[in-house]
Amino acid sequence: MDTSVTERRIRWAACQIGAGLLVQLGSLLVVHPLAFVAFLMVGCPLVGLGIIVYLIALVSSDSPPAS
Amino acid sequence: MPASVIVLFCLAAAVIALFIGFRVRFTRSREGKMLAFVALFALPIMAAWAGFSEQMDRAESTKFCLSCHIMEDFGKSLYIDDPSYIPAAHFQNNRVPRDQACYTCHTNYTMFGTVTAKMHGLRHLWVQYVGTVPKPEAIKLYDAYNNRECLHCHLGARTFEQGSTHNKVPDRLSLIKSNKLSCVSSGCHEFVHDVASLKDATFWKEKR
User: Fold this and answer.
1) From the CA of A54, how many Å to the nearest CA of chain B?
2) Which residues pair with A40 in a beta bridge?
């Protein structure tokens, strides 16, 4: 597989994780039920999805054969 | 862990993850791969778990429960200057922790009580923002209040076990313990929040 595809996936994963963590961070700044929902329904899925994309990028990347 | 530490941790994890995202060529080196694994796997999981734990703690706070406008009257009822009002008497005398006053009485002390309470909370949110918001005095519990929640603290307490009213009639105590006679039934501890009568009530002003 082309390396750039793996790198694109890692970039995509990093953006999702970064965005998810920023949402989680924002939700921690206020004590309100909507912040709780934003954390659970937006932050956690974004982070989870990013981790899955990263793991897919890892397992699908071609590594050079061990000599 | 203090909330400020969790916020800083989330911020640091987000910055590192975004750094990897914008400098993805960095992951071609061995060190870069290791940093990417930490930034895109280990740190996000730790940050999300710490945040989740903090959010679950916050969801049990009185401030959290009273942050919706419709709950304001229930918050006021905690300050009614009348010891026959059970929530007020408990709140004002520190029989429940003041910062978790709602949760202490309105969770159910079973294996999945906390989860059930949180699901009810999500349903409240749905009604608040999507459904038709009822008047505060029209709000009812999902199920009749279970004595189990009272007995979680009062069972074994001298005032409960040996209280004259509880022992006035034979078997009354066993009926209470088996939830066949409700603690909040008429003639017992019947005044609970009673938000409809708030306008006529006098309120306790805490001296600070």
Assistant:
1) 7
2) none
**Domain presence at residue A65:** no
Tabulate helix, strand, coil % of chain B (nearest 5).
65, 0, 35
Give domain status of residue A52, yes or no.
yes
Nearest to B11 among A25, A31, A34 (CB): A25
Instruction: Please check whether residue A40 lies inside any domain of the structure.
Output: yes
SS3 category, B13: helix
| Contact residues of A toward B, CB < 8 A | 3, 7-8, 10-11, 13-15, 17-18, 20-22, 24-25, 27-29, 31-37, 39-40, 43-44, 47-48, 50-51, 54-55
- The answer to whether the Cβ–Cβ distance between A39 and B51 falls below 8 Å is yes
The residue ranges of every structural domain in chain B are: 3-58, 65-145+184-200
Supply the pTM of this predicted model: 0.82
Torsional sign, CA B4, B6, B39, B48? negative
Q: Is residue A53 part of a domain?
A: yes
Q: Six-digit token pair at B64?
A: 């959290």
Domain span holding position A39: 3-60
Give pLDDT tens digits for B27-45: 889 999 999 999 999 999 9
